[in-house]
Amino acid sequence: MTSPPVRLLLLASAFLLCTNDLFSQTWEVYDLQGKLKSRAIYDRIEILGETVIVGKSESGLTMLSPDLKPMVDLKGEQIYQYLAPWILVKGPNGIGAFHEYGQQALDLEYEEIQTYISMLLGKKGGAYWLYDKGKNKTTALGTLDGAKLTKNGQLITQRGGSYFLPLSSDPEHPYQLLEENDGDYLLAKESTGFGIINLEGDYVMDPVVARLEHTRGDYFYGFDESQYLLIKGDLLKSDVAYNSYHRISKEGDLMLEYIHGKLRRVMEEDGILLDAVGMESVQLIGEELYTVKFRENKTGLLGKKGWQVQPSLGLDWIKAGNEGLFPAGRDGMSGFVNASGTWVIEPKYAETGIFSEQISKYRNGGTWGLIGTDGRIISDTKWDQIKDFSAGIAIANSAGQFYLLNKSGEVLNESGFDRICRLKEGFFLVEKGGKQGLLDNMGTVLLPIEFENIQVENPNIMIVKRDGLTGAMNLNGDVIIPVNYQEIVADWTGKQLLVKELYKPVIILAEEPISGKRKKGAN
């Protein structure tokens, strides 16, 4: 009989002699009907994009074909980041970059890489390199104080306290400031003033404006020679969309013009949104949505296309509305007005929501109920929280438990859930006691609450996890892939499921060899 120490030694030796396949695992490729197509050996597979599949095995990191055949050696240890069309790969000496078509652009030796569609900016220490895919060329930029690729593909560098545009027609021209924004034009500053620069690095407004700042899109707000300016960027020459010798104040996204010290106009990026006498105050309450108060105690709600609620008496405030009704307040209470400012539902509630599918929530005290557009009470105030209706169903919370409500305020699930999540496919993911289930859009159970995780990939396939194992099912509960695998990755471009088998170690036991004769008297 082999002694325990010898057996352990033999086990260790057998383990070391095993092939690399021992450390990797089998992936099976199934079509969406659950039919096996092929197999491959990888430790891990990731789908980065519609055409990018990466596999990791003992031999390294590899780009794969749709049928999991190796295509390109990525020469690294892990995917650092995928910023389409660039795959950033990390190795022992740094980060490198591959195009999603397989071409290597930068070696794996950089500390940081910035990406644009056709360019890469690599950094090592204080030195930078620029890769241009169109020219398939990497250019050393030298040691810089800083550099960045803008979202529009401009390159801004900093050196010796100045800014530069190396890709422009005058790459050594210094600027005091170059500032990117959400539009297509850079804000620039020189000793002569502020200006605007286009994608090619050329001025479309000369740097002569005393004060200039970006507002939104391609618009700028400025001041020069006692004039207030609203400017729109242009490829060749920027336009002054509006100018005035009267003061235009700007606080965040709110711009107001004052004439002889009195508030007169609400401004938008390229001109006047509202010109009205008697305005007392304007408050921005949402994107391009303003509450406007007048001196005669009238309040209105102004939108991009004009009045959403006409200025009316007896309104302390108005909020954004829906379905033609707007939450409004008077004397500390809340109700609803229509577009003419007339009370449709009198202000007698502590708080209201907005209407969705002709139902809104309302609050008296600390709990919420439901009310219809005609003011009819649908549900008394008994809920800690109610979310808006969608497809005839709302989610409500009481004492830490969640319920589904129909438009009559009736509860669809008698037993509450610890969590309910509405999915974009129209289903409800529910959780109870750490287990998950799936309901349809009417609250009917599709999958029982017995899974650790349910991932709805599309209306016909769900990847589920139960007792630590993974499988795939359809909405009828039919099994597509049995729930006995380690992992499933959906490849929708290839219309297939990549399934990772459980790791099954191969152990070869060797018995102690018998040599010579047994000694006399030996047991």
Beta-sheet strand percentage? over 45%
Distance between the termini: 11 Å
Strand order within the widest sheet?
A: 2-1-54-53
The number of helical runs is 1
Radius of gyration: 33 Å
Outline the biggest β-sheet. 4 strands, antiparallel
Uncertain parts:
1-22, 516-523
Helix content: under 10%
How many strand elements? 54
The overall pLDDT, averaged over residues, is 91
Shape: flat
Which class best fits the helix and strand makeup?
mainly beta
Descriptive account of the structure:
The protein has 523 residues and is an all-beta fold. Helices cover 3% and strands 56% of the residues. The radius of gyration is 33 Å and the shape is flat.
Set down the secondary structure blueprint.
Blueprint: H1 4-17, E1 25-31, E2 36-42, E3 44-49, E4 52-57, E5 60-64, E6 70-73, E7 78-83, E8 86-91, E9 94-99, E10 104-110, E11 112-115, E12 119-124, E13 127-132, E14 137-143, E15 146-149, E16 155-159, E17 162-164, E18 177-179, E19 186-190, E20 193-197, E21 203-209, E22 211-214, E23 219-224, E24 227-232, E25 239-244, E26 247-251, E27 254-259, E28 262-268, E29 271-275, E30 279-286, E31 289-294, E32 298-303, E33 306-313, E34 317-318, E35 326-330, E36 333-337, E37 343-349, E38 351-352, E39 359-364, E40 367-372, E41 377-383, E42 385-386, E43 394-398, E44 401-405, E45 419-422, E46 428-432, E47 435-439, E48 445-451, E49 453-458, E50 461-466, E51 469-473, E52 479-485, E53 487-491, E54 496-500
Antiparallel strand pairs: 1-2, 1-54, 3-4, 4-5, 5-6, 7-8, 8-9, 9-10, 11-12, 12-13, 13-14, 15-16, 16-17, 18-19, 19-20, 20-21, 22-23, 23-24, 24-25, 26-27, 27-28, 28-29, 30-31, 31-32, 32-33, 34-35, 35-36, 36-37, 38-39, 39-40, 40-41, 42-43, 43-44, 45-46, 46-47, 47-48, 49-50, 50-51, 51-52, 53-54
